[in-house]
Each structure stands twice: as C-alpha cells, then as structure tokens.
Amino acid sequence: MKIALIGYGNMGHEIEDLINESDTHQIVSISYKDPSEKLDKDGIGKADVVIDFTSPEVVVSTIKEVAGMGKNMVVGTTGWYDFLPEVKAVVKKSKTGLIYAQNFSIGANIFFKIVGFASSLFGKFGNYDVAGLEIHHRGKKDSPSGTAKKLASVIMENFPKKKKLETDRLDRQISKDELHFASLRAGRNPGYHEVIFDSMSDEIKLSHSAHGRRGFAEGALVAAEFIKGKKGFYSFDEVFKA
After folding, report:
1. How many CB atoms lie within 10 A of CB 18?
2. Does the annotation flag 117 for ligand binding?
3. How confident is the model at residue 102 (pLDDT cuts 50, 70, 90)?
4. Is 96 a known ligand-binding residue?
5. What are phi and psi of 53, to 5 degrees?
C-alpha cells in the first residue's frame, strides 16, 4: 500500500520507521517536514491512503484539501472534534473515506472496552465513585487528551450517575453527577491513563501505560489497511467490529 504522511513530528517519524521495516507498505510522500512547507499534492496524488498527524490548528483544512483530491485518510491528530459534523459533511460530499481515533493504540482501544465493562458493573452499586487521571509529555498541545475524553465518554455511557465531564481545576466540592478527569503535563511520558473506582470498602484502579509511540503507529497502519478502498466516516472502533 502506498502511503502519504502529513506531519513529520514524533508520530510521523515513528510511522516512517515502521513502514521502512515493512515489505507491504511504502511511503510516497511526506508533507510538512518543515512547518513552512506546503502540502505535497503531487505526492499525495500517488498514495492509496493519507495518514495525518499534524496539529489541531491545521488538521481540518488539511482534511478538506485531501478529501478534495479524492484520497482516503487516517487522522491521528486530536483536539479538533468540535468540527466533527463539518468534517463528516466534507467526507460525504467528496465520496471518500476517513477513519479517526483519539488513540490508535490497539491496547488502548481494548482498554476502552475494559473500562466500559467495569463501569457498567460498578455503576450498579451506589457506594462506588469514579474518576480519571491522564499524564503526557510537556510538548502535548491539547489537554485533556483525546484518549481521556474517549474514556470519559465510555464511563458516562455506562456509569448512570455521572452526567457531566469536569476537567478544570476545582475550587469547590465536586457534584455527584460530575466525572472529574485530571491532566498532568511533564517530562517525556508518551501517555498514561488511569480510571479509579473508589468506595468506603475498597479501591480498584485500571490503567494503560504506553511504552512508546510504536503502538500508535502500528494502529495507524491497521486503520490505513481498513480504510483503503472504503467510503464513509469511521472511528477506530469499527476496526474491532470488522
């Protein structure tokens, strides 16, 4: 499969390294090796699938450009989800395919399912409360992480008394219907997420810790294989249903 990369930060390098080890994939284009560069439209035109790991500030305009070229996309950039309806409309109009995820790690996506199941069990008992914590490197540009938002959504879908997500600093007592998900930014941590179920009797912690970025790159390539030749708008959840 011929792949065009958009974005050449940590994830771009990780995907490049992984593809260079592959006998089945090749990179035909890399855009934004330098932030001042323009999109490599000639190279993208040769690709089967385009993988984007850029920034929230540019990803929506990039999606529009790539969709206008009739190319399918994997979008690993986070922090743009307020524009989901607009992007869905763009994908539909262009008759292309797009798959996105808050986290492309296979393990993290299985973790979502574990947390959902645990939330449905603990949510049946009124004596349990739930909260979350995420830690990332100091260079991460969004807070809370897309993964934290996904976990919060999964929890609230399955833990009936939690109705609202609270991610800010609290100078008050938290309401019973609020789910508090805290964020820390420091050092070089590639990603740590923890969900805590707590009662007067005991405490249960579920966590996922990324050892590096390779897992995200592997998942992005799985997503690329999934979206090749498809039309429509997909989340990475669909891969686990296929």
Report:
1. 16
2. no
3. confident
4. no
5. -135, 85
Indicate which residues carry an active-site annotation. 136, 140
What is the CATH architecture assignment of 106-209?
A: 2-Layer Sandwich (3.30)
Can you tell me the distance from the alpha carbon of 11 to that of 74, in angstroms, rounded to the nearest whole number?
13
Q: In whole angstroms, give the CA distance from residue 118 to residue 105.
A: 20
| pLDDT tens for each residue of 184-230 | 999 999 999 999 999 999 999 999 999 988 999 999 999 999 999 99
| Of the candidates 2, 5, 47, 53, the residue with the CA atom closest to the CA atom of residue 25 | 2
pLDDT tens per residue across span 22-53: 999 999 999 998 877 889 999 999 999 999 99
Cα–Cα distance, 11 to 89 (Å, whole number): 27
- Write out 185-224 in H/E/C secondary structure: ECCCCCCEEEEEEECCCCEEEEEEECCCCHHHHHHHHHHH
For residue 110, what are the CA distances in angstroms to 11, 143, 237? 21, 22, 10
Class assignment of domain 2-104+214-241?
alpha beta
Dihedrals φ, ψ of 197, to 5°?
A: -105, 125
pLDDT exceeds 70 at position 242:
no
Half-sphere exposure of 59 (CA within 13 A, CB side): 25
Residue boundaries of the structural domains of the chain: 2-104+214-241, 106-209
| Cβ neighbours of residue 202 closer than 8 Å, sequence gap 6 or more | none
Q: What is the pTM of this model?
A: 0.81
Contacts of 139 (CB under 8 A, 6+ apart): none
Is 193 marked within a binding site? no
24 is in an annotated binding site: no
